[in-house]
């Protein structure tokens, strides 16, 4: 890019092919196997906390998410994505910041509260989390990438961001929740643009996650 | 220059035999054409003759450390060299493309064969020398043949650096690049002010703005021209796919749309070479085959452009 960067379209800035992007996930999964099983099990435990919240378990859930943001930044963004996308170098610190925000806002001075009663906000939040945990890995199968290219929660950025959006969508207090929502939403928007530019089916899914989280957050509490 | 015959390694010899075997499987006219070296044109005033078709690396060689894709890129470069290609172009902006090229050059023992064209791409000219050194390390070569200021970013400071490097023999040729038809006024200004060896710009059968001022100026000033985005990053090929080549394309031995487009580009008297990028060995062969006689004359070039415009 030169100084006339505003004249570029997303496809002018696309640096890699769909094949290379798909292979990122295949190689990542190969390298980490069987961590996927552990990640899914931890995700399942986190879902139980969302369904039956209590203050101590909520703090553990938030800590788990913080660890996942750091792990994904290191294992996926830094080790795999950054070599083919120089822009990722600027995003990695944001993942670190999200982890710090989760720890700071989730564990200090009252922390976060998860609602125990059903509401539209809670329904959307849990729906987002369930999608990120159980359905998003299957998108790879539907789009032809195969299960070997599945994006698993806690190991890859999209489902992690969507799951975090789910938690941020339903949690209280609102100001802390909004703070936790910004970086996952930005990542999902970036992912949407990337997938759209690559011509991937299901590119709109990260965008839909952001819309769902914002809808939940803006939905009247009662 | 290509290495002397006695320096051929067993791997290279085997590679050549494999390439010859693959060539023998193609239709006879194509196979016969590929036994000849590609056409060359001198980079003006340098005494260096470059094959008219080079190899770009934007997107196609950005494969990270994926061993499967690295080997696929190595096969592409092997075919490129087997067909007589030399100029490979990259940039620190292209992700891991430089490292991919370095990997393949090492595997193919082709450091002596390649004409290495890279770029400097940083807004801070003080960072230029370190970036160039890092790029050279990725390529695994003793020096670059050509260094270009990528998209005019920080061009004044970088050209000072490159001119000093050229004076001291640390690079042979220097240039500037632009793409997508951007900032042609500034390119023209630099071409008039600075003793460039080359300018890289977007030129193809539909993106012809450069014909107005930059290509004539390049001829007038004795500056080489490297044409990028010959296929508009596949968009042009996709647009033409399924549409018939005109029967008279046979007169210039253009068997495919890719060859039709490449022959149009390299037949412009100001264009030194074109740098299509690809991940396919067969496309490399197809592209290099375009750099062979006959090329279209001016009348045929107009006919070609009119035909594509009418599709």
TrEMBL record, chain A:
Coiled coil stretches, renumbered: none
Membrane spanning stretches: 31-51, 60-78, 90-112, 124-146, 177-195, 201-219
Keyword Membrane in annotation: yes
Source domain of life: Bacteria
Pfam family, one: DUF6064
InterPro entries membership: DUF6064
Protein name: MFS transporter permease
Species for this entry: Halomonas lysinitropha
UniProtKB/TrEMBL annotation, chain B:
GO MF annotation, one: oxidoreductase activity
Chain segments annotated as coiled-coil in the UniProt record: none
PANTHER family: D-THREO-ALDOSE 1-DEHYDROGENASE (PTHR43312), NADP-DEPENDENT OXIDOREDUCTASE DOMAIN-CONTAINING PROTEIN (PTHR43312:SF1)
Pfam families referenced in this protein's UniProt entry, alphabetically: Aldo_ket_red (PF00248)
Top-rank lineage group of the source organism: Bacteria
Signal peptide range: 1-33
Domain NADP-dependent oxidoreductase residues, every copy: 53-302
Record keywords, A-Z: Oxidoreductase, Signal
InterPro entries linked to this entry: AKR2_Oxidoreductase, NAD(P)_OxRdtase_dom_sf, NADP_OxRdtase_dom, TAT_signal
Gene this chain is encoded by: yhdN_4
Protein name, UniProt field: General stress protein 69
CDD domains per UniProt: AKR_PA4992-like
Keyword Oxidoreductase among record annotations: yes
EC assignment: 1.1.1.-
